[in-house]
Amino acid sequence: MGNDATRKQANSLASETLIIVVCILMIGASLTVLYKKEPVRVEREIAPLSFRVLTFNRPVSLQRLLYSLSNLGRRRQDNTSVDLYIYVDSKNTECESQQKQQRDIIRVKEITESFQWHLGNKEIHYRTVHHGLRNQWLAAWYPVHLMAASGFFEDDIEVSSQFLEYVEKILSAIANRRKGLKNNEEFDQCGGIITEELRINDHCYPTTCTGNKQFMSCFRVRFTSSWGPIYFGTFWKHFMDWYWTVTWTPHFKPYTTDNNGDRDYNLWLRQGKDVWSPWLKRFLEETEYWFIYCKPPRNNTVWLRNYRDIGVNTQSYREISLPRLFSGDLSSFEIPCIQSRKLHNETYNLDANKTYMYSSDPPL
């Protein structure tokens, strides 16, 4: 009797073991199938990109800007989204024409809410108190992802339909360049991308690039602007941390030392204008950041243009001759030689040994 019970127990245990083994094999097989069907996930190499629109009481200007943004061609190269953040300032109680201001703000809200953004998510942030121009900029972004990039647009800007493709080409070129670097020190001081037209004539052409591609004329510049810049997270976080530190210093004013600073930036500070760029100008004087700028491949065209509509710091309309926005095919153009893993600094336009100083009518 005892032996029979032992045999039954052994057979039962063997059966259970066999069932467990079969189950494990089946689960393993199903996981293998799922693994084969699941695409290999790799870390995104191109920086996350977003756009930020700063607006207040200029509905016509805003509508023009949003229309131009809606004409940006396609989704990003890696098929990720470009999220849009719109910051609508609250009423200014010191404004003389309160009724007109209120009507304009209501119209701005209607425009932002009805606007359809096809490249990603859209978020609207309504200020509950009046921020003004400087605080609109400085309260729009504090980067969490330091590899992120974000474009800033005041509402009197209009962009080319190839604007996103231009920015993408530079971000992609930087990502490809990073692959060939043992460390990323080469771009540690790169603050972003300039999209305002810069009148630069002194530049180098690539000497070691091969193939049938055409190359844009590109530069490293020690200049930035408020006309649609693309700022990198590392730069903007550093600037914001610096800003909050120096504002705690009693009586600190961000005066600059060059001639343009005294003519424009320092003058605005003495006049008490609602401007933020003197702070950025002073920060650039204290750091070594540089920016990438590439000329449009068609003469007398620009990536964006500024209508300089009546606003906080523009009290009267000035009729100006606006440049043509670039339109055309960018697919055959490359950022010169920056993709080469065997690249030496002297062989491409963004020459690490040259810093192009540029000064123009500075941004407000």
Main features:
364 residues; alpha/beta; Spore Coat Polysaccharide Biosynthesis Protein SpsA, Chain A; eight-stranded mixed sheet; two-stranded antiparallel ribbon; 8 helices; disordered C terminus
Structure description:
This protein has 364 residues and is an alpha/beta fold. The chain has a single domain (49-347), classed as Alpha-Beta Complex (Spore Coat Polysaccharide Biosynthesis Protein SpsA, Chain A), CATH 3.90.550.10. Helices cover 35% and strands 15% of the residues. It has an 8-stranded mixed sheet with strand order 3-2-1-4-9-6-10-8, with helices on both faces. The radius of gyration is 27 Å and the shape is globular. It starts with a helix and ends in a 30-residue tail after the last strand.
